[in-house]
Specification:
The chain is of the alpha+beta class. It has four domains: 104 residues, Outer Surface Protein A, domain 3; 181 residues, no CATH class; 161 residues, Beta Barrel (Elongation Factor Tu (Ef-tu), domain 3), CATH 2.40.30; 117 residues, no CATH class. Helices cover 51% and strands 18% of the residues. The chain is built from 22 helices and 24 strands. The strands form seven sheets. Strands 9-18-23-20-19-24 form a six-stranded antiparallel β-barrel. Strands 10-17-15-12 form a four-stranded antiparallel sheet, with no helix packed on it. The chain has a four-stranded antiparallel sheet with strand order 14-13-11-16, with no helix packed on it. A hairpin with a 4-residue loop joins strand 3 and strand 4. The longest helix is centred in the middle third of the chain and has 31 residues. The two termini are 60 Å apart.
């Protein structure tokens, strides 16, 4: 008997195993255990020999006590004790494996039906995750198995290995080119074709599950669509694979979709590498990304109920691993906050430990993915994303909270809550949480990526149009102010200058003629024409003089692509090279917008720079000299860009801004995905001599005076305000 007064008197209860249960004996590692299938509910469970023996004796006529005595006669020292038997009976009732007088009554069945309807309604109301069963695909899968089933064989495995290894080697040898030509160039215009590739791959993924399941004798009972953040993900129901006696058959059934996607990705990689730029290579690149992205993020993750979870469950030979783990975590919670006796998993030995570990990892992942998907929804869907996030969080967390409050108020038919224990435990939790949030300091360091750059840095640009006829310097060369850098050639400009000079001489002759003839009106007009020609001549001479590009200051030439500019045509304003002087450098940091106000309050404070490549303990002292008054999405140095090995995500500006709003010089620019505030950092003379332009690192500013609770609260409110402003203009 359980110690609680309101629990059932299990020893005298007459329980009956449901007629829809199917038992299958399995052997693994010298142990005997039983697979329990509820054929109506479509659920699978795993129990040991003592649990099976007791459950099989529950026929609705004998009491639990009689069944325990008979089990003891059959199993002797391996039989369950009273507490274990009570826990088993409670678990079978909660899992719906046995019927009681209460559960078989019409009111109890109506209550169960109402709960199931509520569960389905809640799942349909959650806009973040919606599931739609569509039809029974068993006949379709049977036909596909007739033509493709031969691939589920050693020959198919050999073909898969050869193609995947070939494709993998090809990708490794072309990885940088693929990233530059396909990933970095991804734009919103690609989403439609990417979605088409995604959907086709998912259909093939699910077809592979069905074919392998059918190949080993299973049935595919349902096909449908799961909408995750309104992204369609097809699914098939292959739970019948749990009937396979060989666990590797079950694992292969779960892995089939991922194996097919990897195989298709390898073929697409081979096509991409061998084809020329065009539609074929474009679509092959889409397939490569689509076939690997979802597989890595979701299917292979064992903490979500996708392929990786079922593979782990089969490998451990623990059916319903997620349910068992969640049940244990719930029991541990009740033990901590209500003093209830903790309910151990029905699995034995190391499997029991695996269930406990999985339960805690899965609940942590649930919180992480729920909050992550809600944040993603609030950011992705303009205008109503925040509403979707609120509804999703309410359904994920609000309803369990309501159920908890109901349990706290009334308990259940099987147990009553210890409210005094809960009051003490909850008070202690609140005290510890509040103490942690308001006594623990917030992250004490504000950090930002930093790049060392020349100060001053002179950017040498073409002032006159022309061909770079001769480049007189090389990258890194030391030059003095006034040294010749580049000679441009523009025959049209020289020809125009000569023509204007000839016109000036002719105009002067005409003026003399008009003076002699005393033609005053013509004389006045000609003098005005001469003045305009003289002005044009001066302008052309100034432009011609700039065809010889000279150094504006002493320093070192910075121009890695100088050789490519030879014989190229330069327009006025085109950058040719830069000149900076070693030892005259500064730090440029890009800080987050939420840190700027705090940085302004400490503008005279010292900062520390950690420069990559130096020892962990070697910091560079610096001082903030200027904070830009506004956030910017351009970069003061290319080393900040992730595409150049930097820390900040960037996208081509042309993907975001329309042609009307983009300057001509910005056509090939990269822009930050999140605007940042530039900060100039003054360095000491000794540090400036040891640093080189282009070095990267992190800027640290120590001493944030704020509690962790205040820090989290202010960032949360900033997030809400940002989304309100972005979606509603509030």
């Amino acid at each position: 008997m359980l110690p609680n007064e309101q629990t059932l008197q299990f020893s005298q209860a007459k329980l009956k195993a449901k007629d829809s249960l199917r038992f299958t004996m399995r052997r693994s590692g010298g142990e005997v255990w039983y697979m329990v299938e509820d054929e109506i509910a479509g659920k699978f469970f795993q129990i040991g020999l003592p649990q099976y023996t007791l459950l099989s004796l529950l026929n609705g006529k004998r009491t639990v006590n009689d069944a325990m005595m008979k089990t003891a006669t059959l199993l002797r020292q391996n039989a369950l004790d009273e507490q274990e038997a009570a826990n088993l009976c409670k678990w079978t009732i909660e899992s719906g494996l046995v019927e009681t007088e209460l559960s078989s009554s019409s009111s109890r069945r109506a209550e169960a039906a109402e709960k199931e309807l509520m569960r389905k309604t809640v799942s349909w109301l959650n806009p973040i995750s919606l599931k739609f069963p569509i039809f029974n695909p068993d006949a379709l899968v049977t036909t596909a198995n007739h033509f493709l089933g031969w691939l589920v064989s050693p020959v198919g495995a050999l073909i898969w290995m050869v193609v995947v290894m070939w494709g993998g080697f090809t990708f490794l040898t072309n990885a940088s080119e693929f990233v530059n030509r396909r990933v970095s160039s991804f734009s919103p215009d690609d989403i439609l074709w990417f979605a088409v590739a995604w959907l086709v791959l998912k259909l093939m993924h699910e077809l592979a599950h069905g074919v392998v399941c059918k190949r080993f004798g299973g049935r595919v009972t349902s096909f449908g669509i799961l909408l995750l953040l309104f992204i369609p993900l097809p699914f098939v129901d292959v739970t019948s694979s749990w009937r396979f006696a060989n666990k590797w058959y079950r694992i292969l059934t779960s892995a089939a979709g991922m194996l097919v996607e990897v195989f298709i990705a390898a073929i697409a990689c081979l096509i991409w590498a061998e084809s020329s730029p065009g539609p074929l290579q474009y679509h092959a690149g889409n397939v490569m990304v689509a076939a690997t992205l979802h597989t890595l993020l979701f299917n292979a993750n064992p903490l979500m109920k996708f392929d990786g979870y079922y593979m782990l469950s089969d490998w451990l030979e623990i059916p319903n691993l997620s349910d068992h783990g969640r049940t244990y975590v719930k029991s541990a919670f009740k033990r901590m906050y209500f003093g209830n006796e903790i309910k151990q998993p029905v699995e034995n030995g190391w499997r029991s430990t695996a269930v406990k570990i999985y339960g805690f990892l899965a609940i942590a992942w649930f919180f992480l993915i729920s909050i992550g998907l809600s944040l993603a929804a609030s950011s992705l869907f303009e205008g109503f994303g925040l509403l979707i996030a609120v509804v999703g969080l309410t359904l994920w967390f609000g309803l369990p909270i309501v159920k908890f409050i109901k349990y706290l108020a009334t308990g259940t038919k099987l147990e009553a809550p210890n409210r005094q224990w809960f009051a003490v435990a909850a008070s202690l939790t609140c005290v510890l949480l509040v103490g942690f949030l308001f006594l623990c300091p917030s992250p004490t360091v504000v950090s930002a990526p930093v790049v060392i750059d020349y100060e001053p840095l002179s950017i040498v640009r073409a002032e006159a149009p022309g061909f770079a006829n001769q480049i007189h310097v090389t990258n890194g060369q030391t030059v003095q102010k006034g040294d010749l850098l580049v000679t441009l050639e523009n025959p049209d400009l020289l020809s125009e200058l000569k023509s204007v000079e000839v016109d000036i001489r002719i105009s002067k002759l005409r003026i003399n003629a008009y003076l002699e003839s005393e033609d005053i009106s013509s004389l006045q007009l000609e003098r005005e024409l001469l003045a305009s020609k003289v002005q044009r001549s001066a302008e052309l001479r100034a432009l011609v003089s700039t065809l010889e590009v000279r150094a504006p200051q002493d320093g070192n030439v910075l121009g890695l692509d100088l050789a490519t500019k030879q014989e190229t045509y330069l327009q006025p304003g085109d950058e040719i090279l830069s000149i900076g002087k070693h030892g005259e450098v500064q730090g440029i940091a890009l800080a987050r917008q939420q840190d700027v106000q705090w940085l302004r309050d400490h503008e005279d404070g010292r900062v520390y720079l950690k420069i990559w490549g130096r020892s962990e303990s070697q910091f560079v002292d610096g001082e903030i000299s200027q904070i830009d008054p506004r956030a910017r999405d351009d970069m003061p140095h290319d080393a900040f860009a992730a595409s150049n090995g930097g820390p900040l995500a960037v996208v081509p500006r042309e993907q975001v801004e329309s042609v009307d709003h983009r300057a001509k010089d910005d056509e090939d620019d990269l822009m930050l995905t999140q605007p940042r505030v530039p900060i100039e950092i003054r360095l000491s003379a000794s540090d400036a001599q040891t640093l080189w332009a282009g070095q990267t690192g992190l800027m640290y500013l120590r001493g944030r005076e704020e509690s962790l609770g205040g820090y989290l609260g202010s960032n949360f409110m900033r997030f809400i305000r940002h989304n309100n402003y972005r979606t509603h203009g509030l």
